[in-house]
Amino acid sequence: MPPVVVRQAAPDDLEVIVPLFDAYRQFYGQPSEPDRVRAFLQERLAQGDSVLLIAEADGQALGFTQLYPSFSSVSMAPIFILNDLFVVPEARRSGVARHLLEAAVGKAREAGAIRLSLSTAHTNTAAQALYASAGWERDAVFCVYQRTVHRPAPPM
Fold it and tell me: What pLDDT digit, counting tens, does each position of 11-24 carry?
């Protein structure tokens, strides 16, 4: 495989990221909605409220990760939430995800964050193995709870 380069996405990368993000959502059982994906990502890039990193080799987009800045109240310090990570099926198990994780750690350090947090499906054992091998630690202290407060409108 050619060398993988990870860089921060810019608004000009929108059309490259849309199919990746749409495929990511489909992996998690969501319908294909490229127009909604485009609008969502365009807003993130325009507002700068997330950090989108894209992995490429030979000019081909192979994956992405998206980080959301937040804060730890207890530590009174910035943190990042690694909310999304996706690699195209044909590039899996080739180190692309590891490059994305390393770039995410670098971006968090650069921003002065004290930690990165992520969650994945209990069934996503391949991702769990990757995270463990890359030095991520599974939380054994805190339980994660969620409560839906509003469901998005169904696609048109």
Answer: 999 999 999 999 99
- Domains of the chain in start order, with CATH, are 5-133 (3.40.630.30)
Cα(42)–Cα(47) distance, integer angstroms: 8
Q: DSSP letter at 6?
A: E
Q: Is 102 helix (H, G, I), strand (E, B) or coil?
A: helix
Give the predicted TM-score (pTM) of the model: 0.90
77-87 and 116-118 strand pairing: parallel
- First-to-last C-alpha distance (Å) of the chain: 40
| pLDDT tens digits for range 20-53 | 999 999 998 999 999 999 999 999 999 999 999 9
Q: In this structure, which amino acid lies at residue 73?
A: S
Q: How far apart are CA 69 and CA 116, in angstroms?
A: 9
Distance (Å, whole) CA 32 – CA 100: 24
Find out whether 18 and 34 touch, Cβ atoms under 8 Å: yes
